[in-house]
Write the structure tokens for this entry.
Amino acid sequence: MNDPLELPLRDIHLPEAVGIWPLAYGWWILLFILVVVVAVGVFLYLRNLRNRYSAITLAKKELETIQEKFSRDSNPEQLVREISILIRRLAISL
């Protein structure tokens, strides 16, 4: 029998390390979905912010109208009623 130390064996060569680039298709799809979700989220946030500020601006204008009406009529009951309605509408819209 042959001695195992005398057999013509070569050293074991490990394969090269797998690199991160190029990314697999699944990662590109995941990245695309993430970008779309972030873009939609930013769009919705900005739209909500714009609507919120437009509602506040309209409420300020209506409050000025209520104040002018109160300075003309001096009816505190009407003032309280209209301000209460304005506050409720603003709270619902925000």
Notes: The chain has two helices and no strands. The helical segments are 25-73, 76-93. The first helix runs from residue 25 to 73.
